[in-house]
Amino acid sequence: MKIAILSRNKRLYSTNSLYEAATARGHEVRVIDYLRCHMEITSMRPSIYLGDEKLTGFDAVIPRIGASRTFFGCAVVRQFEMMDVFSLNESVAISRSRDKLRSLQLLARRGIGLPVTTFAHDPRATGQLIKQVGGAPVVIKLLEGTQGVGVVLAETAKAAESVIEAFRGLDANILAQEFIKEAGGADIRCFVVGGKVVAAIKRQGKEGEFRSNLHRGGSAEVVKITPEERSTATRAAKIMGLNVAGVDLLRSNHGPVVMEVNSSPGLEGIETATGKDVSGLIIQLIEKEVEKPRSNKTRTRGSKG
Ligand code: ADP
Questions:
Q1: Sheet of 2-6: strands edge to edge?
Q2: Among candidates 241, 297, 237, which has minimal Cα distance to 112?
Q3: Which of 67, 153, 178, 192 has its CA 20 to 30 A from that of 289?
Q4: Is residue 107 part of a domain?
C-alpha cells in the first residue's frame, strides 16, 4: 500500500513510530506536511498538491493534525476522502472530537459517564454554573485549551467566579465541571484501535498537581482496566466515530467518567510504558480496511452531530 502520514514533523515520536511500523510491513510511506498542501476543488476531479507535485495513488492517509491546525488539517483530510482515499480517522470525526463541548454533549446523550458539566454565555449565570456542578472546588476549562493549559482548579466559589470573569474578559469560551477529587490527580488513557482497547496507561500528575498530563510532568505506568472502563472507552470512540482514539477516563466514585476523546493520541507514552507495538496494530487496521470491498468499508460512524 501507499500510505501518507499527514504530519508537520517526521521526527515526532508518533509520526516516526507509524512510519517505521508501516515500512516494516512492506508499505510505501510518505510523511506529508499538510500545511504545505493545497487543493483544487473541481467537479469530478478533486486533487491535492504539495508544491507543484500532484499527490496521487495513495491508498490511505493517517492524519496527525495539530490541535491549532484543525481547520486546515481537516480540509486536507477531507480532500483525500473526496479522492476516495481511506483516512484512518475521518475528517468529520476529527473536527467533532476537537470541540470539547460538542463531544461531551454527544457522549452525554448516549449515557456515557461524565463529570457534571455546565456551560453558559450570560455572566449572570455564573453562580448557577458553580452551584449545579456541586459547588467548590470546581474545575474551570477553556474550551480551546490542550495539554492541560487552561484547566484550573478553583478551591472556593469566589475563586471560581474570579477565574470565570477573567476568562470571560478574554472573550474565551469556558465550561465549569464537577471536580473528581477521588481520581487523585490520575487519569486512565485507553488507546482504542478498531473498536478495541489495545493498551491502557495510568497517568499521575506530579506532586501537588491535579492535572495528569505527561506534558505537565506527569508519569505513566501500565494499568489493568475494569470491564466497565473498557466498554466506556470503546463506546466513547464509537460515538465520536473514531477508528483510533485515546480515551481519557477518571476513576470517580460513580464509575468511570470520560474527560476527553483524542483523535491523534500520542504513541510515545503508551508504547514506552506498555512495550506494545500500538503503531503496528494501527497499520494492521488500515490494511484490513483498505482491502475491504468499497461498499463494505466500515467507517466508524459517529452519532449524529
Ligand atoms: P486537556 O485537553 O487540556 O488535557 P483535560 O480536560 O483533559 O484538558 O484536563 C487535563 C487534566 O486535568 C486531566 O487529564 C485530569 O487529570 C485533570 N482534570 C480535568 N478535569 C478534571 C475534573 N473535572 N476533575 C478532576 N480532574 C480533572
A1: 28-32, 2-6, 60-63, 86-87
A2: 237
A3: 67
A4: no
Going by C-beta distance under 8 Å and a sequence separation of 6 or more, which residues neighbour residue 304?
none
| Ordered mean pLDDT values, 10 residues apiece, the chain (305 residues) | 97 98 98 97 92 97 95 97 97 96 97 95 87 94 78 94 88 91 96 98 91 85 97 98 98 96 96 97 98 69 69
CATH number at residue 149: 3.30.1490.20
In which residue are the cell numbers 501507499 written?
A: 2
Q: Domain for residue 111, yes or no? A: no
- Can you give the CATH number for the domain in which 279 is found? 3.30.470.20
Note whether residue 54 is domain-resident: yes
- Answer yes or no: is the C-beta of 193 below 6 A from any ligand 1 atom: no
Per DSSP (E only), the strands in the chain are: 2-6, 28-32, 37-40, 47-50, 53-54, 60-63, 86-87, 117-119, 138-142, 151-154, 174-178, 186-193, 196-204, 219-222, 244-252, 255-262
DSSP codes, 200-237: EEEEE--TT-S---GGGT-EEEE-PPPHHHHHHHHHHH
Q: Which residue is listed with cell 517526521?
A: 10
Residues 29 and 76 in one domain: yes
The residue range of the domain holding 280 is 182-296
- Nearest residue (CA) to ligand 1, atom 13: 211
Is the beta carbon of 147 within 6 A of some atom in ligand 1? yes
Q: pTM for this one?
A: 0.94
Pocket lining: 148 vs ligand 1, CB cutoff 6 Å: yes
Angstrom distance (rounded) from CA 270 to CA 221: 9
Ligand 1 contacts CB of residue 97 (under 6 A): no
